[in-house]
Amino acid sequence: MTNADPSSQKVIEHCNKYDEAERLKNDIGPFELVCTQELILRYLPPAPAVVLDVGGANGPYSFWLAGLGYTFHLVDLVPRHIKQASQNALLPGSPRLASLSVGDARQLDFPDNFADGILMHGPLYHLSERPERLRAIIEAGRVLHPEGVLMAFAITRYAGLIYGLRNGYVFDPVNHKMIRTEVATGLRENPPDWLFTFPNAFFHHPDELKAEMQEGGLRHAATLGVLSPAWMVPDLDESWQDAAQRRVLLDIARLTENEPVLDPRLMAVARKPAQ
Fold this sequence. Notes:
By secondary structure, this protein is of the alpha/beta class. The chain contains 11 helices and 9 strands.
């Protein structure tokens, strides 16, 4: 996604309106962070494997995994995110990243068979057109070693509906119309002015995500739910601060991970076929 690409410009403009660095610190963020870390470590090969974080924002997962000994390369479309990551890299005690660069998931600046693993956080929901998502998946396959693993994150088709029910937003007619469109087609379009959300996005059904991995030339291994319905618990912040309740939330996430349609966030695991 180059700067000349209108869809890229929309993503950059959206991401410049809020501080991505704070997203994982509040509300659902801490729960999402821990669940995602657990799944990543389950499928990544051992350190010092070479891993790309494509669409990794300002690098919360990049710095964490670099601190565990991985050779980590952070790539993101948004210059502001890479600037933030570069500043974080200068902090005392910060883990060292192998590289940080502004880049496009559909045209990565890395050679063939370069990486043992790729994390792909944003491209599959920011790229609303299926051919463009397939380009990103095919490009990930090009860069991976044979048997290398892609962990690609997506938003479920029903996330907006569930979130709208939880917060009473569904009774707004513009929001209701938006939800009807995305449940029927996967496309998020024309959100109400008062709702801070993606201006355009694609929300997957788990079966669609599997099909895109396969059509992109990869061997699909699993599509998992990241959070489970536990993200809807009342007073999530308070529950997360309570150690006993936190254990229950994490247990529910593990219990239902193989029912990804219940989850707002999905992770597809796919491997490049052996040559």
